[in-house]
């Protein structure tokens, strides 16, 4: 055991914040890409991986759903992180000094109102934590970063303004991935089962495959489609449902699903996080 949890991004990224929130006793291991974070777990450099899958404002995180089925890892937990955006400046800087703010383009777009009110021009950075690091190195009181509180802590920046995001409920959902599946648990707030499937090439196959969940009273909280290997004829679906595969109604629904599909792969069975509520 390494007691490490891998994430994509630099120290201070929101994924790093998710690691600290969900696994405070573990060392967070920064990785360049999502693939690198997955590979770190597969090769034993880390015990777990923290991967963002969707944001309440911007939807799903590109590429993640296509990476999960071939990762060799299993979802064991979900975590929700409120995206609080702070304006961070060099030590001694004042809000009145700031003329430019740097961050990932997504965060810049989430703080338009604040930036316009204070006449601050936007500079696109590669990511949030990297922008905070750049501001720390530049030591320019006119340049600030939009990033997490953790980034300010790591790079020694002053907090000039907090919670400046336009959307007060902006939240990112993360999945914690492990080499070992664990279907033995039962969550206080219920269970979530995540899986991918491909339907058979017959008329109304998707409609029929989904019918089993409706008739058996299984709530499907997520259903997304994406192309497989760039093909316009092969479509794979990712789904989250409420319940455990051992629940009688879920078992009946999954049995019906298999009849109309060529592939069904369960990615994880895990407790529902209270953040869902």
Automatic annotation (TrEMBL):
Residues 194-271 form the ACT domain. InterPro entries: ACT-like_dom_sf (IPR045865), ACT_dom (IPR002912), Preph_deHydtase (IPR001086), Preph_deHydtase_CS (IPR018528). It catalyses: prephenate + H(+) = 3-phenylpyruvate + CO2 + H2O. One of its GO terms (biological process) is L-phenylalanine biosynthetic process. Residues 4-179 form the Prephenate dehydratase domain. GO terms for molecular function: prephenate dehydratase activity. It holds the Pfam family PDT. Its EC number is 4.2.1.51. Keywords: Amino-acid biosynthesis, Aromatic amino acid biosynthesis, Lyase, Phenylalanine biosynthesis. The keyword Flavoprotein does not apply. One of its GO terms (cellular component) is cytoplasm. Pathway: Amino-acid biosynthesis; L-phenylalanine biosynthesis; phenylpyruvate from prephenate: step 1/1. This is prephenate dehydratase. It comes from Sedimentitalea nanhaiensis.
């Amino acid at each position: 055991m390494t007691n490490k949890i891998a994430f994509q991004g630099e120290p201070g990224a929101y994924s790093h914040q998710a690691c600290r929130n969900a696994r405070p006793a573990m060392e967070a291991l920064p990785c360049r890409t999502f693939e690198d974070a997955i590979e770190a777990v597969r090769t034993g450099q880390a015990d777990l991986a923290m991967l963002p899958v969707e944001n309440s404002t911007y939807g799903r995180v590109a590429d993640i759903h296509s990476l999960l089925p071939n990762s060799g890892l299993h979802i064991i937990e979900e975590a929700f992180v409120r995206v609080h955006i702070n304006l961070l400046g060099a030590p001694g800087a004042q809000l009145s000094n700031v003329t430019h703010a740097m961050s990932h383009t997504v965060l810049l777009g989430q703080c338009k109102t604040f930036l316009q009110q204070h006449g601050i021009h936007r500079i696109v950075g590669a990511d949030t934590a990297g922008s905070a690091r750049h501001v720390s190195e530049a030591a320019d009181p006119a340049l600030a970063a939009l990033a997490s509180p953790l980034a300010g802590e790591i790079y020694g920046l002053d907090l000039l303004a907090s919670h400046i995001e336009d959307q007060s409920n902006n939240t990112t959902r993360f999945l914690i991935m492990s080499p070992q599946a664990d279907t033995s648990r039962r969550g206080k707030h219920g269970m979530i089962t995540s899986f991918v499937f491909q339907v058979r090439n017959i008329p109304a196959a998707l409609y029929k495959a989904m019918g089993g969940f409706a008739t058996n009273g299984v709530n499907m909280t997520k259903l997304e489609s994406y192309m497989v290997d760039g093909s316009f004829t092969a479509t794979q679906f990712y789904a989250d449902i409420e319940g455990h595969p051992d629940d009688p109604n879920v078992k009946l629904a999954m049995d019906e699903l298999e009849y109309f599909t060529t592939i069904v792969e369960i990615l994880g069975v895990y407790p529902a996080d209270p953040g869902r509520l």
